[in-house]
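Hey all, sorry for the wall of text incoming. These are the two entities for the joint prediction.
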Amino acid sequence: MSKYIVTSALPYANGKLHIGHLAGAYLPADIFVRFLKLKNEDVIYICGTDEHGAPISIKAEAEGVSPKDIANRYHEKIKEGFDAVGIEFDNFSGTDRQIHYKLSQDFFKDLDKNGFISIKTSKQLYCEHDKKFLADRYVEGICPFCGYEGARGDQCDNCGKLIDATALIEPKCMICGNTPVVKETTHWFLDLPKFGDKLKNWIGTKSFWKDNVHKFIMSWLESGLIERAITRDLKWGIPLPIEGNDDKVLYVWFEAPIGYISSTIEWAKNQGDDDLWKKYWMDENTKLIHFIGKDNIPFHTIIWPALLMGQDKNFVLPYDVPANEYLNLEGKQLSTSRNWAIWVDEIAKDFDGEYVRYYLAANAPETKDSDFVWKDFQNSINNDLANVLGNLANRVFTFIAKFYDGKISKYSEVSDSALELLNSAKKIIREVETCYQNYKVRKATKLIIDLARLGNKYFDERKPWKMVKENKEGASETLYVCYQILEIISILFTPVFPKKMSKLRASMNLKSDFNWDDLCTEITDDVTIGEFKPLFTKIEDKEIDTQIEKLFANLKSKKKEKIVHKEDIEFDDFEKMELRIVKIIEVEKIKKSKKLLKILVDLDGEKRTVLSGIAKNYKPKDLIGKKVVMLINLKPKKMMGELSQGMILAATNGDKLSLLTLDREDLDIGSPIS
RNA sequence: GGCGGCGUAGCUCAGUUGGUUAGAGCAUCGGAAUCAUAAUCCGAGUGUCCGGGGUUCAAGUCCCUGCGCCGCUACCA
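and here's what came out:
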């Protein structure tokens, strides 16, 4: 028997969980693990929060608490979210614990000793007031690309581009507000290219990996591996284990995946056997399976395996990395910043957590992005669960109670239709098993609901309500067979509905200690049913309408961004700008660009070429003849091989854009603006 | 522009290595039934499988091309 370590991506401890997280990395893993446990496999399910990095320490400083407080707070919130929907880890740790510190430092030391670490100096922003390097989010300034004022040191929130902090215009230290200086700093790099061949060979053995994962890795490998910095100038994190460098910490992406191991070590200690973790991590037969979202593919298939390969200890390498695609919400991509999301704790408050499990399982983004649609959520629950499965259970139970005082016996003769049904059930059992084994949760749920449909069909065909009047014995066969079908479903659906199915089994007076093999043994005893209440209650239209309203209300409330005023300027400053009316005479698209238009304008005889990023909002032919406002004396700039001599003014709001035009057409070209 | 993905019934999607008359659920219409949470069951379907070309005895599936949409990326003076 092989052992399994199943992990889900470590959630970052500075925010809550939303349904996209669940659908991608947690629910599929949880279902897989519950399935393996049903099969009595030796499996541990490991996770924990990722607690270091700049965003957490910045939030901490903003709130005047310690980073640890932030990490602890969200660790608890995230855990509550998981509990609410029944995601059950064998261990849920965090990366700010001693075990993890030591292990991460050991990882670094081994890599260093084995020649996989190099040192480089580079330029970074340094605040002389706070005496520290301003990594990533510790600095804000004007985005060199879009001009957005709140751009961070690593990325601009407005245009989404990655930024080299030294390129920021008017950078400001987030702590004191002073202007930082550019200073050299030293960083340690992981020499990824040295692992190139080894990685290629290893990945070559992974032909069974999901197609999307394989494609992603190959394009990464082909574009060439580069050395990657694994240290940061921060206080919050795991200190670099090299003397005299206590101002450096290991970068989160380096240490976070090590959390899978340290969480397992913690688990072993809790089990009272400190070395137990080695039996999993150091056995080459262990199947290490990482469930992640698609954004995590390179880390888990290239960098993390490289880290493992560079160790003295023989750690097992990932066996499989089933990466899921994204879950959209009502047709649009989930977005935390725009508040376009459904939070796990909130949905679990309004609906049964297992409804959420079912819907997300039935719509898992396994091969492509899928969509969470509230109306569809309601439909799935009401039709599949309440009407099909719930009703099957309900009609069988009430029938047995009503006509047989809650007790029926094994039938003596089996009808053809019963045989047919039981054979279909056997086939479905095999198919469901294959699906679970291959992370195909979506198909598994569909198959099980199909079985419930077959049950209803069989019940209708046999018409026990009629037969019971003439041949009570014969009618009991139908009930007995349906009872068997329900028993099968109670096992098949346990990975998805652990609670509901155990409730169902309790009503059926079935043993609470059961496993997958029980699917092969037919019940032959008399059965007595217990107390029964409907398994699934329907979701009313009103409830869904409320949710939809809430969703859009959130969106609106977030859309209103505060207007941040700029510093006052002198009239002279304004006078410096030469703004004039120009007429557009020729427009053509720049082939290589989606947004840029090349515009030729007439400035009272003089002609100028301007590039403008308005191709998404205006068609070239609609622009010709328009009189617009242009900044004339802006320094010319080359873009996409063309020289732009000025800037056409436009108002923007999100995707909307409008050129500034005149409300009196008779004004001359070249008229100044003042 | 580069890389990747997608385009199948009104809607959400299945469609394995090319192989009979292209499927499921929902919604719609008609019927049966009354054990059951008005639940269930049966029947009816509607399709230029995005367009065009090609390979093949055979294409939703493979190749080329055009269009449309999405994601990442570059671009936004």
